[in-house]
Amino acid sequence: MRAEALKGHLDALLLAVLEPGPAHGFAVMGELRRRTGGTVDLESGTLYPALRRLEEAGLITGTWTTGPGRRRREYQLTERGRRALSEERGVWRDFVATIGAALAPAVTARDAGA
Amino acid sequence: MTAPGPQEIIDSYLRQLRSRVWPAADRESADHLDELRDHLLCELEQQVSNGAEPHSAARRAVLGFGRVDELTGKLQRELIRPHLRRLGNVLLLLGLGAGATWTGVLMAGPPEPWTDRTEPRTIRFFDIGGESAATVTLIAAALAILLVTAPGQFLVRSRLRAHCQHWSVLACATSLLLGLATAAQLAGYLAVRAVLFPGSLAWTPIAIAGLLTAATVPILARPLRAVLTMRPGHHAPRGAH
After folding, report:
1. Pairwise CA distance, residues B181 & B240, whole Å
2. Range of the domain at A98
3. Is A49 on the interface with B (CB under 8 A)?
C-alpha cells in the first residue's frame, strides 16, 4: 500500500504503533508492516518526515539512546499524543460505521422474507 | 581494487544524502544522519540474520531506503521548518536590537539642528522611509515565526500547514529585504546629515553601533544559508560537501 492511500491515516497509524512503548524508526516500520500483514510498507522518505511532524506537534517525543554500538533515536507518545490517538480511533469507528452502512448491499423485501 | 564493505556502502549513500539535504553540516544534520544510519544498519543486520550475504544486504538496504533524489525533497520539506523558525527569530531579535541601538545612538548624540518646518526634504525622506521599512521588517519577521510555529502545533495534517510554511519563507524574505532597505535608509540619513550639517553627529558611538550591526551578519548568515539551501525547488549540486 502506497503513502497516497494512507493519506489522512498515517499519523494515527504511527501513534497506534507507538502506543505500547518507545520505538525507533526501523522498529515502527517493522511493527506497522507486521500489524497489517505486510500490506502497509512505509517508505523511509514518508516515515521520518511524519515522525518529525508529530514531534513538532507535541504528539510524540524523541530521545537519544544507545543502540548496538551506535546512537539511536526512540520515539514515544506524549499525553497529548494519547488523547489524539483516542480521538482518531473514535473518528475512524464513526467513519467505518457510516461508510459501512452506506456500502452494505441493500436488503430487499424478498431477501428479508427469505 | 577491493570492493567496499557493507558499512562503506551505507556510509557512501549517507554522504550523498548529506551533500544534497544538508549542504551546511551542523549538529542537527549529524543527528538526522545518525538516525538514518541506525535505520540502514538495522535493515542490514536483519537481512544478514535472515541469511543474506552482507554486501548484497547493504546494497538492498540502500536501494530500499530510496533514491537520493526522491528523498531529498521529502526530507527538506520537513527539515527546513526549524531553520525557518530560527531565521524568523534572528530577524526579529536583530531587528529589535539594531533598532534600539541606533535609536539610542541618535537620541544620545547632538540634537537635530532643524525644526519640523525646516527639516530638509532628503532627511525627511530617509527618516520616514527608514522608520516604515524598520516597522515592516519587524512585523514580517514576527509573522514568519507565527506562520511556521502555530500550524505545526495545531494543523498537524492540514494542507494549510504547507501553505503557511511557504508564506513564512516569503515573510522572512520580505523581512530580510526591508531590513537591508532600513540599513540603506539609515546610511543615507547619516550621509545627508553629515553633508548638510557637519558636526551634528557623534561619530564615535555611530562607529561602534555600525561595528555592532556588522557583527550580527554571521548570526543571520547561518539560518539564512540553511533556509536558502533547503527551500523548495533548490537542490545542492551533486557531490557537494
Report:
1. 33
2. 3-102
3. yes
For residue B34, give how far its alpha carbon lies from the nearest alpha carbon of chain A (Å). Answer: 7
- Residue A68, domain member (yes or no): yes
Model pLDDT for residues B1-26, shown as the tens digit of each residue? 566 788 899 999 999 999 888 876 67
| Contact with chain B for residue A70, Cβ under 8 A | yes
Residue of B128 and B234 predicted with greater confidence: B128
Question: What are the extents of the domains in chain B?
Answer: 6-66, 80-230
CB B87 within 8 A of CB B80: no
Does residue A108 sit within a domain?
A: no
Q: How far apart, in whole angstroms, are the C-alpha atoms of residue B162 and residue B32?
A: 21
Cell 543486520 sits on residue = B45
Residue A23 lies in a domain: yes
Domain count, chain A: 1
Pairing outcome for strands A23-24 and A60-66: unpaired
Query: How many Å lie between the alpha carbon of A104 and the closest alpha carbon of chain B?
Result: 30
Residue A96 lies in a domain: yes
Q: Is A13 on the interface with B (CB under 8 A)?
A: no
Looking at residue A78, which CATH number applies to its domain? 1.10.10.10
B145, B183 in Cβ contact below 8 A?
no
Whether chain A has a CB inside 8 Å of the CB on B63: the answer is no
A-B CB pairs within 8 A amount to 69
CB-CB contact of B81 with A56 (8 Å)? yes
Whole-complex ipTM: 0.84
Q: Say what the pLDDT of residue B21 is.
A: 85
Q: Chain B window 42-61: which residues touch A at a Cβ cutoff of 8 Å?
A: 42-43, 45
